[in-house]
Amino acid sequence: MVRERLDNWCEKPVFISFILIFLMMATGMYAIYQLATNSEYVWLFIKAPVFRKRGSGTYNNPKHVAGFPGPLVAQGLANTSARRLGHLLRFSAGHASLFTSADKMITW
After folding, report:
1. CB 73 within 8 Å of CB 46
2. Which of 9, 12, 29, 80 could be disulfide-bonded to 94 (CB atoms 3.0-4.6 Å)?
3. Residue pLDDT, tens place only, 37-78
C-alpha cells in the first residue's frame, strides 16, 4: 500500500514543485546565514566588495537570489490550499513559502 502511494506521488508534477520549493528555502537559509555572520564567501569564492553586506545565497549577485523564488512562492502557496495533499505537506509548503518571502525581503 505504501509502495503504491509512493509510485503515484512520484509521477505527479507536484513532486518536482516540492523539490524546487524546498531548494528555494535552503538557498534562503544560506542567504540569511551569510547576512547574520557577515560572510565574505559564496561557497569558496570571495564576493565582490559591493555585495559583502548582503546575503546572496548560492549566487554571487544578491538580485539573483531574490529573483529565483518569485514564481515558486506563488506555487508553494497554491500547494498549501490544495486539498489532495496531506496536512504535513501543505504545512511544509506554506512554511517554506512564507520563510522564502521573508528572506526575499531581507536580501533585497
Report:
1. no
2. 80
3. 888 888 888 888 888 888 888 888 877 777 777 788 888 888
DSSP letters for 25-58: HHHHHHHHHHHHHT--EETTEEPPGGGTTS--TT
Q: Which three cell numbers stand for residue 52?
A: 559583502
Which amino acid belongs to residue 7?
Answer: D
* The residue type at 107: T
DSSP classification of residue 1: -
| Pairwise CA distance, residues 34 & 28, whole Å | 10
What phi and psi, each to the nearest 5 degrees, are found at residue 45?
A: -100, 145
Dihedral over alpha carbons 69, 70, 75, 77 (to 10 degrees)? 90
Contact assessment for residue 42 and residue 58, using Cβ atoms and an 8 Å cutoff: yes
Query: What amino acid occupies position 86?
Result: G
With CA atoms as reference, report the closest residue to 102 among 35, 40, 39: 35
